[in-house]
Amino acid sequence: KLTKRIEAYCRKRHILNAGKIPYDTHVIEAVNSGKSLVDFGCLAGSAVRSTYQTIIPLLITKDSSKGEKNE
Question: What is the DSSP track for 3-35?
Answer without folding.
Answer: HHHHHHHHHHTT----------THHHHHHHTT-
